[in-house]
Amino acid sequence: MKIRFMSLGSGSSGNCYYLATDTYSILIDAGVGIRSIKKTFKDYNLNIQELKAILITHDHADHIKAVGNLAKKYNIPVYTTQEIHKGMQRSYCMTEKLSAEHTCLLYKETPIQLGDFNVTCFEVPHDGTDNVGYFIEADNKTFAFLTDMGHITPTAATYISRANYLILEANYDDEMLQMGPYPPHLKVRIAGANGHMSNRDTAQFLAEHFPPDLKYLWLCHLSKDNNHPELAYKTVELALKERNIIAGRDVQVIPLKRTLPSELYCFE
User: Fold this and answer.
1) To 5 degrees, how large is the angle CA 261–CA 229–CA 222?
2) Which of 59, 143, 237, 255 could form a disulfide with 247 if both were Cys (CB 3.0 to 4.6 A apart)?
3) How far apart are CA 130 and CA 260, in angstroms?
4) How far are the Cα atoms of 3, 99, 173 from residue 225, in angstroms, in the given order?
5) Which residues pair with 141 in a beta bridge?
């Protein structure tokens, strides 16, 4: 079974990820504008009308902007926890609210089968109304999505350890954040236990707990003002090298673009 993966955008301007087999396709988050989503699908020769489900990680604007419009226009069910659904319905940025028929509930660490995908959501520490990561299995391939979190809990670590393909946050560089233009309260929030992961946090965790069967690592949700793709990559590369894990040989390490789609990866 072929599985395709693409990032349509990864950062504070909007987050959206595409995962598909030949018969079933889903989005994880839809925080990119609907016009951009439609254009990307057209550019990559994908059929947006074949989307079967949208999974939501939390209710911040950069993850839910297009959810209501997509659900209504293409009749797509939206899956997440009850608390995240409540947060989305209250959100100012969702001009089109979800109807009951498009509102589907998930329960943390309770797997659900969606077409070819076995999906499990799990708790992650962040400051949304509620916050989850996703562990998705298909044809003996495992994907873990952890896009916004302040630190890696034992629960998150368990799912990371099982991943063949890992989408993991590397939001900021510590020095750039502290020396940058953000007000003090925002710096505290970002660096807090319920904020975001730094390059160093991500690099150190992976060096110490490298998943044994990991093939691809995508660094996601990079900050525009407090990070650079090359810096995120180099921080992770050097930490892994100290443990004799070589980027490009033992694992592919790829920083995702903030406002542009990635390539369309195909795994068999």
Assistant:
1) 70
2) 237
3) 27
4) 33, 37, 10
5) 138
* Site of tokens 């890696």: 152
Ranges of beta strands (E only) in 130-186 are 132-138, 141-146, 165-169
Which among 102, 31, 36, 97 is positioned nearest to 69, based on CA atoms?
97
Residue 4 forms beta bridges with which residues? Answer: 20, 266
Structure tokens at 59: 């209710």
Dump pLDDT digits (tens) for 191-222: 999 999 999 999 999 999 999 999 999 999 99
Q: What is the C-alpha to C-alpha distance for residues 215 and 204, in angstroms, rounded to an integer?
A: 18
C-alpha angle with apex 249: 246 to 252, nearest 5 degrees? 90
Distance CA(232)–CA(227), nearest Å, equals 7
Task: Kindly report, residue by residue over 8-35, the tens digit of the pLDDT.
Answer: 999 989 999 999 999 999 999 999 999 9
